[in-house]
Amino acid sequence: MQTHQYDVVIVGAGGAGMRAALEASKDARTAVISKLYPTRSHTGAAQGGMAAALANVEEDNWEWHTFDTVKGGDYLVDQDAAEILAKEAIESVLDLEKMGLPFNRTPEGKIDQRRFGGHTRDHGQSAVRRACYAADRTGHMILQTLYQNCVKQEVEFYNEFYVLDLITDHDLAAEDVPEGVEVNATGVVAYDLATGEIHVFQAKAIIFATGGAGKIFKTTSNAHTLTGDGMALAYRRGLPLEDMEFFQFHPTGLAGLGILLSEAARGEGGILRNSDGERFMERYAPTIKDLAPRDIVARSMANEVREGRGAGPNKDYVLLDLTHLEPAHIDAKLPDITEFARTYLGIEPYTEPVPVYPTAHYAMGGVPTNVQGEVLRNGKDVVKGLYAAGEVACVSVHGSNRLGTNSLLDINVFGKRAGRSAAAYAKIAEFRDLPVDPTVAVVSQLDEMRNRPEGDRVSDVRRALQETMDANAQVFRTGESLNQALADIRELRKRYENVSVQDKGRLFNTDLLEAIELGFLLDIAEVTVVAAINRKESRGGHYREDFPDRDDKNYMLHTMAYRRPTAAADQAEGHVKGYFDHVEEFDGYKVVLGSKPVTQTRYEPMERKY
Amino acid sequence: MWSWVAHRVTGVLIFFFLLVHVLDTALVRVSPEAYNAVIGTYQTPIMGLGEAGLVAAIVFHAFNGLRIILVDFWAKGPKYQRVMLWVVLGLFAVTMAGFLPRHLMNVFGGGH
Amino acid sequence: MTATLEAPETKAGAIPSFEVTLRVRRYNPESEHGEESFWDEYTVTAHGTDRVLDALHKIKWEHDGSLTFRRSCAHGVCGSDAMRINGRNRLACKTLLKDVNPDKPITVEPIKGLPVVKDLVVDMEPFFASYREIMPFLITNGNEPTKERIQSPEDRARFDDTTKCILCAACTSSCPVFWTDGQYFGPAAIVNAHRFIFDSRDEGAQQRLEILNDKEGVWRCRTTFNCTEACPRGIEVTKAIQEVKRAMITRAF
Amino acid sequence: MAYGTSAVAKVDAPRSPYVRRRTTRGNYELYSWVFMRASGVVLIVLIFGHLFVNLMVGEGVHAIDFGFVAGKWANPLWQVWDLLMLWLAMIHGTNGVRTIINDYAQKDLTRGVLKSLLYLAFVIVVVLGTLVIFTFDPCPVNAPEHLIASFCPAR
Ligand SMILES: Cc1cc2nc3c(=O)[nH]c(=O)nc-3n(C[C@H](O)[C@H](O)[C@H](O)COP(=O)(O)OP(=O)(O)OC[C@H]3O[C@@H](n4cnc5c(N)ncnc54)[C@H](O)[C@@H]3O)c2cc1C
Ligand code: HEM
Ligand code: SF4
Ligand code: F3S
Ligand code: FES
């Protein structure tokens, strides 16, 4: 075991983690721990763009952007946070440009902008060009640029280190800590993949930036490594997870594979068609058609297929048509994604339409934070010294459905904020004592897994989980399907107790780590399904066929899911009788649902029409 | 990559030949007899074949050298490197076709 | 508008499958083979759109959990899984089985020239060290403008190709010069230097040229084009290297 | 779905880690690179001329003898031609072989020895060649008459 001490420790080296690192390392001794080499984080997969009302190509302002974000999120957005997001967007795009990001340019040499789903002028009048982009590799350029600047600032990285535990001075999943009592985060425990050694990082401030959890689903645009680690670690310590029922399904994944074709394809003029060649989005969203927000488009597509108008031999996908676009235009604006179609499906997008189907894409929910990036342990108390940013976090700028291009924005705006807050806190805070042996939990978990002689295969359990999630908790959900998913998850939890790994070595044991990651996936799937069962309405990314309408009266609240000891009270903060009072018992613990009010400033909820 | 390997191999080959060649030519300083004796061995069929190989090496090295120079200094060079490699091989074949019959005739035919 | 021939079929059973054999070069100092590398052969069932990565996953998940390789994104954008497949460097997640002749055993080896850690995993540190050495960040002097720096679309296009690099090391580890002693900076570092040297906003070109004007720098490149052929992002690597060489010559004379 | 472990062929164990030994900046490699190209272009003319005259004109190799050489070097054009060719080819070739040694000789010692040998050979050959071209006497006094050039006074 090795011990390290840093003012600030950042977990995750994606866009959010590195943006925070650039801020924090200016004022505080900072380490970034990442299970991947930084440039391999999934931020690099983001394609389309990053929204900011620069008004470089047409009239625009941040208020319109705020409105679109709020409306896009089906009004479950915290409007104060959305305002910050839209306002600081401009500065964060300019920051990136100054750091060297090669944005595409207008003829005058300014940052070019393009259309994206849900972005409108004048509160929904017509589509607006707001997404700043670098071809269709905006995320790649952001990730590279941030890493380059980390190299410049000589940020310290611990690459291929897996953080497997968060150390706090109170374990809320085991003890009852009343509101108002101070809870501190004091460090993390990490596993060095290359050597199998355990490292303890003591820190005054810790930032979680571990990204999403798309691997709970089978069809997903997410990387194999996006297993919701940060969310699960916080959850296991009894910290709440917010709005986990809202998962975004991106309309245009390559059918059968899930690999994403950016919305930019439609932003540049691509059209969705069913087997009759009909531009079916004209029926569902007459004003902005193919550029409606993702939840609407994804549902419309799934509906076409359900009603028998799908294309292909099994009628199980629709078509994305780019054939009317100039090949030169496609090459200039969408080179990478057309390459995907060629490589993986052998389809030439110049002349043939591309088979697409919705793919699990983005977790709107996550570890709740305030706008400073501080992690909340209930509706109001923060955990001292713990911050979160990026997809792992839920500041709730995305509400129940994220607008395209708002996530790259989120990681920059709130990554920066979290970094700044953490460094400021580290200035005034002291190191706090760690438990005598901070590594027990991790070491025993690893040893147990390694030593279990024979058992279920990790991959079998994982596949079963992903399949039930795809079948029962995807674009269309019902109480019945969700309960089925929950039953399956309970079953799989039992099997997980019994999985064993074949690789018993110390060096680069990815077999072992996949087993650990499966544990995170089960946790995340469990909260997602429990929260989805409780929300008996349809809103944004969460669509209940048995409750197809939005119910602002009872559900205009954020879900807060707490893992608690079996003996704990059956009520959590934000308990609303009949609506947010669900309790789900598991072996040895239970999940208690509470709620948190939605912050509303200037936009009253309206019906969401496009 | 193979064009590079060939370039390397032919370069070294020529270099070692050059060493020997200068040394034997230096014999003209020693005496005409000595020189002629050595040169005489160049005129045997075996050496004649060797010589053909050497010329081939030089010809390839030279043309491929030009190709490399074009790759280096002509902006479109890298794009057409493969095409140019075929051109090099073509020129090589043409040159050798011009040279070999004559040379072999001199070596084997000649009637000396 | 009808569906095309090769459209994937998601329903199981409808998909044509075939058997494919992978011959994997392995190395595991903890195994009974010790410091010796060895070959393992696996035969798995694959489907039309399966990639080499899918086959490796199948092996790992269904047969031999100890088979070790890196991967993340699974669609060619993160640069984790560069490996030598049938003697050529490629990304396993971008190489369709049907494109590498699945009738014969497919050989899979770690990329060459970097120290192997375990199976297909190599130590990337020397590679990233070279990358960091060329100062891969925008260098500017003077005051920052309040808004963005202006750059014409033409100036932006000048270095577009080299911005695509995902640092997968396929190029550097395919370079015969790099294989010799591993001292050469390698094409990837030069590509990333190129990205800044030809960025009209950057003012650090002189320093970078100075760094690469090294015995182990650009001059070691012998234009063998292996890197260009290996690059999964289609970057014209050799061309970029040549442009850097020419910039150095212009500067020296 | 069969699967068999077969430790068929043994392959080399992987290499140990390394770091770049030192930075060696300077224009030396640059000049040598430019020289390789410049000399290459000139060499093409020189060598092809040489080969053509020696092997293609008249009776080819068979025509070469002492007299032939003497006849050529009586002409200052060929003297300069061959001198230039000698120098350029030797520098070009030596520099080329130097790169190759740098590439493949891993140990400093091996590299040192090989390079010393290379430079030694270079010096010997260039000095010898130059001397020969300049001090060459087309009509050695006591040589048999039939061997020497037709323009010699001895004939
Ligand atoms: C295909 C695709 C396209 C997208 N396109 C867009 C777009 O056009 N516009 C937009 O705004 N958004 C887009 N998004 C969404 C956006 O890219 C992501 O939400 C965002 O990049 C997440 O960034 P992050 O920094 O939070 O996480 P990531 O970039 O995923 O980084 C996570 C980091 O955490 C580390 N980590 C994880 N677990 C651990 C652990 N246990 N220990 C140590 N380290 C750990 C990882 O190594 C990694 O460095 C897209 C997403 C996908 C998948
Ligand atoms: C006929 C005209 C010639 C031309 C156009 C030519 C051209 C070149 C060029 C351009 C290179 C550089 C290759 C590189 O940097 O990758 C080179 C390398 C070399 N040349 Fe020549 N050359 C010629 C003649 C010769 C001769 C006569 C010799 C032998 C004495 C020779 C020996 C070499 C060697 C050993 C190399 C190094 C190869 C390597 O590093 O891979 N060349 N030549
Ligand atoms: S240049 Fe190409 S091959 Fe080389 S590291 Fe970059 S992406 Fe990989
Ligand atoms: S493979 Fe190597 S030699 Fe040059 S052209 Fe590429 S760097
Ligand atoms: S897994 Fe990301 S490039 Fe292959």
Largest interface chains and counts: A-C, 77 and 69 residues
The averaged pLDDT of chain D comes out at 73
Tell me the β content of chain D. Answer: under 5%
N- to C-terminal distance of chain D: 91 Å
Mean pLDDT of chain A: 93
Run of helices and strands of chain D = EEHHHH
Number of helices of chain D: 4
Sheet with the most strands of chain A?
Answer: 8 strands, mixed
Quaternary structure type: heterotetramer
Structural class call of chain A reads alpha+beta
CATH topology of chain D: 3 helical TM bundles of succinate and fumarate reductases
- Which radius of gyration of chain D do the C-alpha atoms yield? 25 Å
Q: Helix amount of chain D, in percent?
A: 55-70%
Q: State the low-pLDDT regions of chain A, or none.
A: none
In total, the number of domains of chain D comes to 1
For the sheet with most strands of chain D, the description reads: none
The share of residues in helices of chain A is: 25-40%
Count the beta strands of chain D: 2
Shape of chain D: elongated
- What best-fitting shape of chain A do the alpha-carbon axes yield? globular
State the separation between the terminal residues of chain A, measured CA to CA: 57 Å
Please explain how this structure is put together.
- The complex is a heterotetramer of chains A (610), B (112), C (253) and D (155).
- With 112 residues, chain B is mainly alpha-helical.
- Chain B has helices spanning 2-30, 32-42, 45-73, 81-109.
- In chain B, 88% of the residues lie in helices and 0% in strands.
- Helix content of chain C is 29%, strand content 15%.
- The longest helix of chain C is centred in the last third of the chain and has 16 residues, at 237-252.
- Chain D has one domain (26-135): Up-down Bundle (3 helical TM bundles of succinate and fumarate reductases).
- Chain D contains four helices and two strands; from the N terminus they run ββαααα.
- In chain D, helix 1 (28-56) crosses helix 3 (76-104) and helix 3 runs antiparallel to helix 4.
- The relative contact order of chain D is 0.10.
- At the A-C interface, helix 3, helix 4 and helix 10 of A face helix 1 and helix 3 of C.
- Strand 2 of chain C pairs antiparallel with strand 2 of chain D.
- The structure holds flavin-adenine dinucleotide (FAD), protoporphyrin IX containing FE (HEM), iron/sulfur cluster, FE3-S4 cluster and FE2/S2 (inorganic) cluster.
- Flavin-adenine dinucleotide (FAD) is lined by residues 11-17, 33-36, 41-43, 45-50, 138-139, 162-163, 209-212, 221-222, 226, 229, 260, 262, 361-362, 390-392, 404-409, 411 of chain A.
